[in-house]
Amino acid sequence: MKKISFIGLCAAGALVLSGAAWAHHGDAGRYIEETVDITGVVVETQLINPHSILVIDVTDGGKTVRWQAEMGGAQQLIRSGWVNDVKPGVKVTLTGRRLKSGAPYMNLTERARVMLADSGKVVLQTANYGQPPPTQ
Predict the structure, then answer these.
(1) Which of 21, 34, 49, 57 ranks highest by number of CB atoms within 10 Å?
(2) Which CATH architecture is the domain 36-125 placed in?
(3) Beta bridge mates, 64
(4) For the segment 12-41, what is each residue's pLDDT rounded down to a tens digit?
């Protein structure tokens, strides 16, 4: 009876822990390795967990495209000095990695920067900003 209880406990523990493993995923293969710059006007900033989102409208050739940029979690951003200068209507330049699919979505968690376009003030910059892409 003890053996069956132990096996059941192990199975239940594995089931519970598997949810945590799925909750945070890697991004290998989702994004191009080279960074790109886009400039647009902030629509909203969602300081949420596990990843905050910056939504901007980018105008190119008369057409406006809504982009989303994934950043670190709210607590991580605040600890790193995130300021409330990134408000709706503010023009920003983002440097990050975009989705391979071409969809208007960018990753700002590594080799990335958020800069106020009019003043040049950097409001977010990862420790490895400006470094070359990793070699395969």
Answers:
(1) 57
(2) Beta Barrel (2.40)
(3) 59
(4) 445 444 444 444 555 567 799 999 999 999
